[in-house]
Design a protein that fits this description.
The chain has about 450 residues and is mostly helical. The chain has 19 helices and two strands.
Length: about 450
Amino acid sequence: MAWAIGLILVLLPFHAVFTTWLGATVGHIDLFRIWKELLLIPLASAALWLVYTDKRLKSWLQTSPVVLLAVFYILLHLLLGLRALNHEKVNTSALIYALLINLRFLVFFGVCFVVAAQSSWLYQHWRQLLLVPATVVIIFGLLQQFVLPANILSHIGYGPRTIPAFQSVDQKPDYIRIQSTLRGPNPLGAYLVLVITTLAAVRVSLKKKLSIRLPIIVISTVVLFFTYSRSAWLGLVLSLVLLFYWSTNRPKFQRLIIPVLIICFVILSGLTFVLRDNNLVQNALFHTDETSRSAESSNAARALALESGAASLFHEPFGRGPGTAGPASFRNDKPARIAENYFIQIGQEVGVIGLGLFVAINVLVIIELWKRRLDLLAKVLLASLIGITFINLLSHAWADDTLAYIWWGLAGIALSSVILNPNTISSHLTTRLLAARKEK
């Protein structure tokens, strides 16, 4: 089971490429796209059996507020989905797709927790499972920017009926947005927030032992820049600031972080104002300029979507049902509703109760990760979750297969330390804490 989970984590960054190629070649693209969900069914069944046979694991899960809230969240989706289907607010295709993208990563989180609580293999190899495929993604993204033609992916089935072969800023061919092997530049940007945060954490923790990490950090940052995903840029800054703040044990450095950030913000704001007429600055930061080819600014479209989504949540506090908003709503018989905000999307689908449950799950996971923040994986996930949450305020990042499965899967692995060899891990964390206090 651990190897199967590892296989899913390794293949996910290339999921879009292979499923699009197979779908374009032999058809039935939706069937290929759910390969991981098909694997998840036997994994989840086996995980339930493991829980049933392990008294300590069963006892912990029965009293865990995260698990209880996740169960209520899943049941609420099912009930509201059936109601929406019965009232013809959603069709079967949109409902099934919504249930998949809204719930699959929580199920995977639980499966990874259970399996990692029984076997240390996933915890021991999480860096390789994340960073080895990420290196391939980064290198291919770099080739896309500087070597390969923009439409290279059109040769394997990318196009209007699958995934766009390439995207550009404001429809300008001079500003092609890198998407590498993911579904688009924004999903790639969100994925790189997790990857770069991990690389930085490894670099800080192991220092000179892994000096080779520095070039890949630089390269991945270059790839992130050319996604032109502004939310990912800001999400990465937020993640790295928190990572370095939690990583340093010197109060003097910690006190300097906020003043330095303020100074950097003032300098960057001044440079932006001075260079406001520069084409690169206009297109990179504002995604438009005086020669815009778009009928409507992407900024205006996003603002309108956010306003409309918030208004619909206010007028329909109990939601309209899964599949009536977000990416799944494109499959519905009614016009799609895209709020450009994952949390608003959840509120539109399952109401303020569902939104409250999802926010509570996130908060509880943050608390659990905070308790284990001396552990490298927990620290990476805690810092990156803050940045990814910011991204979700401006997009539907958790709807992307790759990011959702990988982050929540790793979270399940990180939190499993409460079951797996608790005495050893507690001793390890105590030693780290005492060392940190000694340095202070």
